[in-house]
Amino acid sequence: MVMKVHGSVLSTAAMRVLIALNEKGLEFEFVPVDMRAGEHKKEHFLALNPFGQVPAFEDGDLKLFESRAITQYIAHVYEDKGTPLVCEGKPMATVVVWMEVEAHQFDPVASKLQWELVFKPMFGMATDAAVVEENEAKLAKVLDIYEARLSQSKYLGCDCFTLADLHHLPALTNLMASPVKKLFDARPKVSAWVADIMARPALAKVLAMRNQQ
Question: At 63, phi and psi to the nearest 5?
Fold first, then answer.
């Protein structure tokens, strides 16, 4: 059976899963969820994700939700396919640390900035300049730590591209098209890392899917 991803291509969480599947070169079916119509809160979708959020994922009789859990499943179960995304032994511990950093230090700030600078304008809502200023300062501090880390390693987890890097891609896609880009450009190691990971063919394929919607 072909894997299924239920979601919206505008969702950064769904994008995370779609990028991982493309890195692995795996076949899958994308099932669009009409979030504006509230489809993600309806019974048939809640059977896949009881929290009513995208994405939801099916691989045969296995049903998963939470994007980072799904990407880890894909990376480990299909480790012999495509890009490795994880590594063995002690180095994996460092990869996991930076996966946690993305989830708990980077993403909360990045999500607020995306809401203010990308999604609010999309929905005809006014951007809150105070929220942007506050979270730009927070993001700058996070990126200072990234600059130091990337001075020691080509990628965040180790010297090869892993989930620790991949998980950043959906937010970076939005933020690099916003005024926040200046924060990344001001840090040479961070800027080079962003350029590197955003040039990956798997991301290009997902962005092509988004442009078709």
Answer: -120, 130
